[in-house]
Amino acid sequence: MFRQNDMDQINPYRSYSTCCSRWRILIRGTSDIWSTTKKDRGIERERERRERERERERERERERERERDRERERVRVRERERERERERICSKMSTFTTRIA
């Protein structure tokens, strides 16, 4: 003869005549729901944490890229200044050599 618990394992959804059995099914169902929701919440929290981490990494990468751009611009400005200085010196030299000649 089956015990009540064995019947639960065989078919937990069959209708029971006793109130206690119905409550047990109801409680077991809700605890499954709660544990699932708890797992889902944990998974969701983990997903959000990973997403925030990815976003921080993207922001760091953008900042590095901005810094590289700034450095490139500084180098360009220095080059332009050197070129102007060279041209100024060359024009002075040409003026000087013209006067000598």
TrEMBL record:
Protein name: Uncharacterized protein
Residue numbers spanned by region Disordered: 37-85
Domain of life: Eukaryota
